[in-house]
Amino acid sequence: MSQTAMQNRRTTADTGFDVELREVFKFYGSEPAVRGIDLNIRKGEFFSILGPSGCGKTTTLRMIAGFESPSAGDLLIQGVGMNQTPPYRRPVNTVFQSYALFNHLTVAENVAFGLRLKKRSRREIEERVAESLKLVKMEKFSNRLPAQLSGGQQQRVALARALVNRPAVLLLDEPLGALDLKLRKEMQVELASLHRELGLTFVMVTHDQEEALSLSDRIGVMNQGKLEQVDTPDCIYEQPLTPFVADFIGDTNLFNGKIEGYHPNMLWVTTDRGLKMAVRPCDRGNAPTSGRVTVCVRPEKIGFSETQPTNSQVNWYEGRLRNVMYLGTHVHCQVQLQSGDYMTVRLPNNPAGIPAMDSLVYVYWPYQDCLALTSDLA
Amino acid sequence: MSSRFVSRYSRRQFLKTSLAALSSTSLAGCGWTLAEVRSDRPQTSNSNELRIYTWSNYIDETLLKEFTAQTGVRVIADTYDSNDVMLATFQAGKGVAYSVVYPSDYAIAKMLDLKLLAALDKSRISGLENILGKFQNSIYDPGNRHHVPVSWGTTGLIYNSEKLNPAPEDWDYLWQNRNTLSRKMTLLSEPREVLGASLRAQGFSYNTTNPAELRKAYEKLADLKPAIATFTTDAWRDQLLAGDLLLAMGYSIDGVLVAQENPNMKYVVPKSGSSLWTDAMVIPKTAPNPEAAYAWINYMLQPAVAAQVTERLFFATPNQAAFDQLSTDLRDNQALFPPDSVVERCENLKPLPQKSEELIEKYWTKLTSS
Amino acid sequence: MSSPASTSPSESTVSKDLATPRWLEPFALLGPAGIWLGLMLVIPALLIFELSLVPGIRPGEVVNPSGLENYFQIFREDVYRQVVWRSLGFALGTTAICLALGFPVAYFIAQMVPKKWRNLVLVGFVLPLWTSSLLRSYAWITILRPTGVLNSFLTSLGLPALDILNRPPAVFIGMSYSLLPYMVLILYASLEKLDRRLLEAAADLGANPLQSFWKVTVPQSLPGIAAGCLLVFITGLGDFIDPELLGGASSMTMARLIYNQFLGVTRNWGFGSALSMMIVLAVSLAIALLLKYGDRSSANL
């Protein structure tokens, strides 16, 4: 009875989070890999951990899976503390970057692996294996050996092998990293539809920002063992909290400078190279009102003309066109400002409208389109 | 165009020839002789080098060094641990490197059979007159025309005199005291010696060819077998000294050495007689350096050298002059030099007809595998 | 092959003549190894096979193959059957012991010993191989004899002494000791390559360490296990020093029997050759089994 009571308490204490990390640290020797992460992943959410290699994202995932245990802090899965629980007792399953299929077993045997360990009946195993192979469109390959499959097919089998166990949380470690571009796009679509169909919590680790932006409900951006920002994809892109996030996600023009003046809704910043610009303060978190800041402007927000802009409501600067990169759907222009700064400007695909190299051009943007973030250098 | 024709023709011819060669050596096979020894083609070699092939306990550094000092000839000694290995070496054609070899008696007969041995030129050997009369005319090599005896000994029982009381005197002892000796005795790993002992225990000859007698010998041994720890020629020594074994069948040369180590260990030649063995020096027909070979034989015949070797390596010399130079201690050592009354009851192992040898081999396999 | 059409016929023949023909290339490449194998393995094996067809041939006699009499002899007489079974028993038993002891050791070295220590530990394990096998057997006599090292130790602990010298257990101990390093080396090579990610995958799917071991580690290292067992089995089949020195009065093995046929009293080389061919047959059978297993697992790779 007391056990049921415990479970009830757990359920009532259920915060709607499938995975919770509280002040989690991981050290390898004295080397910190993860430095104090607080993270709540909601039920049914597609959550991506995004960051450059070596940022601690894989270590974080491995702690959730149980292959590593936190050096400090707490890890909860479905409200239950899991710090010391071995991987085989966790309600999670992982799709590995290398797929890690058992090469001595057929596709069907691979998928049945988990169910057999749980001593399910033969019929149930057969049914569920067939069902999950069908889910990933691999039902025709059930008697093949992994070595006889392509990378994409192996990926699907790995997915089926994890999903067949109906885990509470599906962990995906760079699941598409080894696939070529076209296949990756295809699999992204399938992952998204699988997630919709199954309603499971997905936690994916990736270094591919596009993948993260297109698939995730929320993204956690990691840098040097810390979570820099956890937000929806559009917030991550439009309203980065730190210069690192701004720089890592998409293309950004960054200027380091100092706040010269402060009005509600507007800051005056002078950059280190002497450019003066009006900037919108970050409207979330502790927005800086004085001191050093980093100003970021997305290339696509920047206007471009050969004549001097007349609108006084915009920041505008004179420069020379130094470089043009044709990217198909659009064009990237590099403009050298008089201050010496280079800026990237993204123009719609209209090569005819681009002025001659080294000609005088003006770049401009409204103050609302640039953001002042507390400088990393502070 | 013509060159192509020629090359193709010759290729085919080559194939044909090599196939023929292959088949004549191995496939068709009729008419080749197994391990034919080419005794008519002596190897030439450095005249300052002598290769001898001998038992490991018959030589030491001192012996080799002194010979080199006397003659200036460098000696390379290779060793073997059974006559069979030595014979096999010769039959495989690898014996051509050696100028002096040390076969035991029946091996001399075999080497003679195989026409491996050169007749000795007695005019080039001095000191032969010192060899005791009973070693002057071997049954294996009448008139000693091909060999010079260098040592001799008997087969007997080496036992722990502290624990075995009364002491063993004859082969019967093994059967009578099998409970005391159970798994505490070893016999030689030599079919003829072991069957011979059993033959002798029943009053038959070591050299019998009578199948009935051989069968009786086997049966008596099979009866004893549960009490035998193992058949071994060497591995009994430490176990006997440590007290784990009470008795081992062995050669006198080993018996003497063990007794030197622990006076409680005694060597006895069974009363009803045992086998008598001689080791000799011979010169193979293929000897690359017969000159040095004669020098070596003469050196070994020097009474002083033979005496020293006996003192140092404990093997009985058949050289009367050397015997006279030995310390009284050694001369009175009955294990090393048993009295004539004992020696008279001992037999040399003679080569047997193939039928008898096969029978012995079969009994031996039975004995060691059941 | 359109260009030869433009050249004159005579030219093409000349160029064909100068260039090595295509079919010859593999022969040229495999030639040295082939000749070596032919001279050192195939021809001697054929010679022995031919000898085995001559009943009772001795050195110096004319080889004249005349039938399978030597082979019949092996199976006609109980004695030889006993010897065959004993040899197989020693070899198989040793293989089982080596596998049981060698696997944990190899696993430990490959998966748990820090990388920088691994070679040292391995060398330590292989070290016994550098001593002569005769010496090793004598060492075991010293250890196993009634008042030897082992029994002194047991008695000092108040345990009963063991009488195992000159009995089959002593043979298993001696042979296993000699052959264990081979097993460990081969298993190590196979376990070192073991993909840890597969173990993680197994754990992730709910396998506890023991289940991971049986369902992943063992199947993954099966080729190594097979190779190790084969090597130990073959070497064990050829060992006669350990059985003879440690096994007591009833320790005749195939290898010793063959030795006796070639170097012993009778010198029956024909029968010895037939026995040798039996061993070659047993070994070939073992290799065939390995290949069958090996094929399946290599297809899996």
From TrEMBL, chain A:
State which Enzyme Commission number(s) the record gives: 7.6.2.11
The annotated topology with respect to the bilayer is: Peripheral membrane protein
Give the main localization category. membrane
**Pfam families for the chain:** ABC_tran, TOBE_2
Give the ABC transporter domain ranges: 19-249
One MF term from GO for this chain? ATP hydrolysis activity
GO cellular component entries: ATP-binding cassette (ABC) transporter complex
Q: Where are the transmembrane segments?
A: none
Subunit structure of this chain's protein = The complex is composed of two ATP-binding proteins (PotA), two transmembrane proteins (PotB and PotC) and a solute-binding protein (PotD).
By what name is this protein known?
Spermidine/putrescine import ATP-binding protein PotA
Question: Which species expresses this protein natively?
Answer: Oscillatoriales cyanobacterium SpSt-418
TrEMBL record, chain B:
Residues binding spermidine are 106
- Keyword terms: Periplasm, Signal, Transport
Q: What is this protein called?
A: Extracellular solute-binding protein
Xref: InterPro entries: SBP, Sperm_putr-bd, TAT_signal
Record Gene3D superfamilies:
Periplasmic binding protein-like II
Signal peptide interval? 1-28
- Say if the entry is tagged with keyword Transferase: no
From TrEMBL, chain C:
Instruction: Enumerate the PROSITE patterns for this protein.
Output: ABC_TM1 (PS50928)
Family matches, as CDD domains: TM_PBP2
- Membrane topology of this protein: Multi-pass membrane protein
Q: Indicate where this protein is primarily found.
A: membrane
TM stretches of this protein: 27-49, 88-108, 120-141, 170-191, 222-241, 269-291
Family (UniProt): Belongs to the binding-protein-dependent transport system permease family. CysTW subfamily.
Question: How is this protein named in the record?
Answer: ABC transporter permease
